[in-house]
Amino acid sequence: MNPALKAWTRALELTAPIERHRSATWPEVIDRLADRFADTPALVSREAALTYRGLADASHRYARWGLSIGLGAGDVVCLLMPNCPDYLALWIGLNRIGAICALLNTHLTGERLAHCINLVAPRAIVAGATLAAALRSAEHRTAPGVKCWAHGAASHGLPRLEHEITAASAEPLTAAERPPPALEDRALYIYTSGTSGLPKAAAVSHFRVMQWTHWFAGMMDTRPTDRLYDCLPMYHSIGGVVAAGAPLVGGGTVVLRERFAASEFWSDLIAERCTLFQYIGELCRYLLHSPPQREETHHALRLCCGNGLRPEVWEPFKSRFHIPQILEYYASTEGSFSLYNCEGEPGAIGRIPAFLSHRFPVALVKFDIHTGAPLRGADGRCVRCEPNEPGEALGQLSDDAGEPRGRFEGYADAEASARKIERNVLAAGDAWYRTGDLMRRDARGFYYFVDRVGDTFRWKGENVSASEVAAVIVSCRGVADTAVYGVAIPGADGRAGMAAVVVDRDFELPRLHSHLAEQLPDYARPLFVRIVPAIELTSTFKLNKQDLARQGFDPTLSADEVYFDDRRGGAYVRLDAALFERLQEGAVRL
């Protein structure tokens, strides 16, 4: 059996029992793992550690604390905590009594934090000691009467959660204390990153937690000898459920870090004897652009797993750091399907084996950039893409109410949920989940990410992919990072391309101009270039372009140098107030 088929088979074997045993949820799995692996380290950080037995015991104590403050099935508790072993123990414990945990982004403060809290109407909030001040900044914007606790040494006036659970029993809960939750019940709220608009709270059922943890355990073939390095935020589905859960299914250990640090990554990974690493594509790019380190090829990695590894980074990353296997996949917290690249095809985000096409019904349909919706033909149905033709990826939703697989569980906001469903796509009455991602599928069935729907813009009658333009820009010597987006010019149809560029000492503006002229068609070449000191990222390492796009090409809105591509002169020219005014008046030929 070839390695790819083995991976699919393992994943299917581990997830098949989930639907047959519909009363088994992740807290129950943790109890079984505690019986089997007992004193084996489960979660370790620099400050604390929990064995498998310790994780189960702590979760029972947190469950009893929840009962003691009156929490019950369907009640929401917000967690605002840094990565630590107790983070997982806490939400597992509250899940035991049917409560739902909303995993708050630890980088939010004030109005945005209050928005995320108010979305889910919590009964209680637990804040890490270092984040209590952030919680205080949002208090006056949240509903009154929500009880708050601090987890950690500095409580900032809040009651200490550790003090309240010391007397709680670690014995398993009885059915009389609290009936266990059902597989279809809600377990978590996990927030979208909010790169466009405010974050949305995606609902995650116990079924999805089970499916994610066991499917990835099969894909990665997690074993008791494995130690996975997890420096991704635990409030996200990747860092907090997939990376934290899949190694536990196999009896391995999760090494937690609060954040990613390129300068210490390899030495830390080696010191912790890690065999697995969970990545997001930008992390790999940062490592590739970091100075060489003696330790970078002395690791014991057998596999790294993640998403967003761009084609131009894949091979250099794998070669330089001697990575034996890369398992790239495509998924989203709220999505109805996933793709997996078990073959290690560089640049591909995955494929669907023929024998599983019924399980992952996916369609790529043409996208109308003017309406922001799938293009429909004369018959009113969406138009499928040809091989290698970009289109929006849709996942068909199950019409079987008793079938948890293939469902869209939606958001806390019902209107936001409705906007993600497209109906009558290929047949009357069908329903499909809109990913908002443009992809293409080659003749062999491999899928490739093209762009986010909102990041593709139209200029001179052509669709421009921001991510594809960005890939060309960063391949130019002297460019360290870039963000590409469209900006409106009065009197011009569509949006012109603009690139915010982070440069190093090797950067030369004329070289960038000639590089883009050689690599890109005229319509795709950014009309404006802005030299910036850094590009803001979301906490999950996605480019945050909102402020850049809002400022547009007005040179007075920042101290950054902005350049205009003078196509007639064949060079970039500094954009000053006078030239800006002429562009606004339509007096410059574009």
Instruction: Supply the CATH architecture of the largest domain.
Output: 3-Layer(aba) Sandwich
Percent helix range: 25-40%
CATH level 4 superfamily of the largest domain: ANL, N-terminal domain
The radius of gyration computed from the alpha-carbon positions, rounded to a whole number of angstroms, is: 25 Å
Largest sheet, strands/sense/barrel: 8 strands, mixed
What CATH calls the topology of the largest domain is: Rossmann fold
Distance between the termini: 57 Å
Total separate domains: 3
Helix tally? 17
Which parts are unreliable, with pLDDT below 50 for 5 consecutive residues or more?
none
- Under the CATH scheme, which class of the largest domain? Alpha Beta
Query: How is the largest sheet built, in terms of strand order?
Result: 2-1-10-9-11-12-13-14
What class do helices, strands and sheet pairing give?
alpha/beta
Specify the overall morphology.
globular
Annotation, overall tally of beta strands: 29
The residue-averaged pLDDT reads: 92
Query: How much strand content do the residues show?
Result: 15-25%
Summarize, please.
This protein has 590 residues and is an alpha/beta fold. The protein folds into three domains: 3-259, ANL, N-terminal domain (Rossmann fold, 3-Layer(aba) Sandwich), CATH 3.40.50.12780; 361-453, Roll (Luciferase, domain 3); 460-585, ANL, C-terminal domain (GMP Synthetase, Chain A, domain 3, 2-Layer Sandwich).
